[in-house]
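QA checklist item 7 of 12: single-chain prediction sanity check.
[x] sequence parsed
[x] length recorded as 251
[x] structure emitted
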Amino acid sequence: MKGLIGIDCGSATCKGVLMGENDILSHSIKPTGWSPRSTAQEILDELIQKAGVEREEVRITATGYGRVGIPFADKVVTEITCHARGAQYIMPGVRTVIDIGGQDSKVISVKDGKVSAFQMNDKCAAGTGRFVEMSAHRMGLDMSEFAEYLEAGESCALSSMCAVFADSEIISLLAAGKSREEIAGGVMNSVVSRASSLAAKIDICAPVLLTGGLSQIKGLRDILEKQLGCEVKASEWSRYAGAIGAALLSA
């Protein structure tokens, strides 16, 4: 084997990495779209081309909600296991992983790269990245603009516990003259409060790593640190944590 490939096919994006001797040789990310299988194939082709290897020279592990629809994978592993292992690679000694993904949120207690406990919210969209994206679009913002408005540090209260009703509430708040800065803060506080509720059910130990598509939003990390009472770190590889873990578990 010349390489180990991990493909994390989530509800919003599909991520892939190709690893050699414990180094990342190539990586790729694409919107999952309507066909996880097709997108995963595109990711595979791109990883192989960038690294200059042949398909027969790599072993592939798939994870994420779309993992069962990837027929060319040599192995499938749950995202909880992969995120723990990937987080250990990204930040050696990590003890807690918080992943706010497109479809669910997870808090994972980690010891030596293995899962010791976890809590997961996959029943309500209001605590996910999809809710943040939907809220940004409702305010006429893309995600980078939403992150900038969040930097203002302002917030208003969102009373709705459901993503559908929260969308209606955002419309009402805009009509009432609330600023986009205030609403952005309210949305993110709502999302973080759900992650914090999950975290309260397990022992939170530092260091804490934030993973998932929202991990690069500093305003999110600031709110999370305030609610948890500890430092929350992120890496440029945070959104690839599941794919990295899957690749390492291909060995």
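[x] summary fact logged: The longest strand covers residues 24-31.
[ ] second reviewer sign-off
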